What does this fold into?
Amino acid sequence: MKKAILYLNQFFGQVGGEDMADHTPEIREGLVGPAMELDKQLGDDIQVTHTIICGDNFMGSRQEEAIDMIKGFLKDKEVDFFFAGPAFRAGRYGAACGHAGRAAQKMFPEAVVITSMDEENPGVEMFRKDMFIFKGGASAAAMRNDLKAMAQFAQKLAKGEEITTAKDEGYFGRGKRKQFFLNPPVPATERVIDMLLKKLNGEPFETELPVPVTDLVPVAPPVAPEKLSEATIAIVTSGGIVPVGNPDRIQSASATKWGKYDVSGMDDLKAGEYQTIHAGFDPMAANADPDVIVPLDAMRQYEKEGKIKEMYKYFYSTVGTGTTQKEAARMGAEIAAELKEAGVDGVLLVAT
Amino acid sequence: MKLELGNFFVKDIVFGAETAYKDGVLTINKEEALEVVREDEHITEADLVIVKPGDMVRIVPVKEAIEPRYRVGGGPVFPGVTGDLMQTGNGRTLALKNMSVLAVGKHWGGFQDGLIDMGGEGAKYTYFSQLMNVCLVADTDELKEQREQQKKNHALRWGGMRLAEYLGKTVAEQSPDEVETYELAPVTKRTADEEKLPKVVMVLQPQSQMEESGYNDLVYGWDSNRMLPTFMHPNEVLDGCIISGSFMPCSSKWATYDFQNYPMIKRLYQEHGKTVNFLGVIMSNLNVALEQKERAALFVASMAKNLGADAAIVAEEGYGNPDADYTLCLVALENEGIKTVGLSNECTGRDGASQPLVSMDEKADAMVSTGNVSEMIELPPMPVVIGELEALARDGMSGGWDNDAILGSSVREDGSIIMENNAMFCGDQVVGWSTKTMVEY
Amino acid sequence: MLMANLIPVATSVGVNKMVPTISIPYPLGDPSTPLDEQYKLRYHRVGVALDALTADISEPTLFKTKI
It folds into this structure.
């Protein structure tokens, strides 16, 4: 039998209303409030063992403390499923379910975290990539239905059944796009014609690839213009320039590794000593003169002229074809940490 | 232009004393066929193997697929490539259906090569498992590229084309089981009824990203990297004016067979005169510099606009940086008020969480998606391997690897494999066959 | 500070400071031109990138190059 824990706020945990929203997190053995219905819906395969109750304001204003306490509660528990809510359209509650769920997931990477919210709950956008958030009702009138949807999904997973798409299962997409064989098998030609005719006729149509919103990155503070001559500048590239022989065995596509190469005492990168191992473009030019990707010669000239103090002694390199954003972000963070540690003031990223 | 494709439905392929086609059975004199292949002295070893749907056979590294054909009245099947230049798309061409010629490396694979399972659970990942295939398994003396990840595969690809022409000749004097007719009048001479319908162009972006010759798709023998978008009759494409290249990760690739049978073009023909007025094909390309990408999009949009197109379909042979060409083209057409639908695959990573195309724009609001190049695929061993299984791990095939820290090698000791969809031969079937889509989990 | 040819890709992933390069396979030197011209172009564009590090910007910015 699989074990589950349910997270509730002070209201659904039957502690009290808004006046009890500062309620300190607590864990109770057994079933409180909606936990009873959930346990019933889960049937014989999954048992709800505990209920966690936390005031919405406590989670809102003393989040770190609340999370630490919840982690403490969970430490010695068995958790196959972690449920939270349903939170309906309650914004604070939705966010609290998300924070609690995320903490539980971190502690129990194999556990399944399931909650439910109305689509206008801000918690949906905050946490949809981190857990299964089912499309729930706007108010507590939907309690039974929402619990049922959460429970049915959990049962399906407990039985080892394969899940279909977010849309079919009824949860908000987690931003993971995978290929799917259509059944019945509708070839792309039919789908194109259907979409084209609808678009021509001004009828509603659904793209198979919705364009996601761009992630904005905060602008890094500039190097003060008068300080550029005192700055150490590093070069990082996704163009796959490495010493011939590729000592770090960086992959030519879908890279998960990066390397750093000491260029102290060199005035440029020589053909035959450095090469590109990037499989996504014609390597001829970069192999003939690796400076077209890592411009060491130009950087040395700017050192001589005093425009910059120096080029950092290592350049960093990986391959940017087929590389997942997640791996790229991890490698970027690792390289950035080293450069910060080394006191590098600025970075030129050369992409291919 | 009027093209008649005379189809012969091949029911069986066997080896025998005389290369001939009779009552649906294609008989091949192996030695004679191999002599045709060996006309190129760079072929050092060659063999032919026949495989059929359902056979428990794994074929790797596959470099090319070609439909055997014969041009009635003379002339090469691929003008400018296997013979002199002439216009394609007019007249009659005979085709051996239900089959293809596959060019397979006896040992060496590369970035652009793919894998086909003819049976078992892996069969669904490629179109070519549904066909009977004559595998030309060969080695060459192209030593310069033998250990290179990027291969032109010239001797094998051209050997495959010669073999396809040789087999096509068997039906030269016979009458086909079926004749498909493809006819479109010049765009200014359409009938009044056709004129009333919305005008549609099909924009093709074949792979052309290598600056060195020998890797790119060829249009009438011309390197598609060295051309600007141009207007063509769809029949030219269906009748051998373009051959596949040797560069893109394989699931994104369009084989020569794909061009000869281009399903999206054939589907537009079906709609022509009913729901749309199919103007023709704008043959664009894919580039390696932003300015080139922008210039190509500009030419496509101008041509579509001046042809009076109301709608367009854009298909991209590739992923990664060519997504920029794709998106630029979709946006340029939309900016002209031309209602556009995109047709391509995605790269969302093994975890599915990466941005689907490297460049996206909200104006590209209608796209059909045919697969994820980086989807992980694990398949059990196959009793028979044609080619060399180790190529998947050893030779830098785009969906294979030799030493992943967690997953180990793509090829395991028992012959089972783990790979990305990237290495499935023409697996994403962007030309239109794909019954895959992309969904969010 | 990103030096890249595919500016639409860079803007699509939210890069803030960008200097264009001339192509994907050879961002900083066209092999069909003489070596000294390749170097001139590389020197110029790296210089623009170094200056861009000092620019105080509030939104994604593409820095102009002359060569």
Observations:
- Chain A has a mean pLDDT of 95.
- Chain A touches chain B through 54 residues (CB under 8 Å).
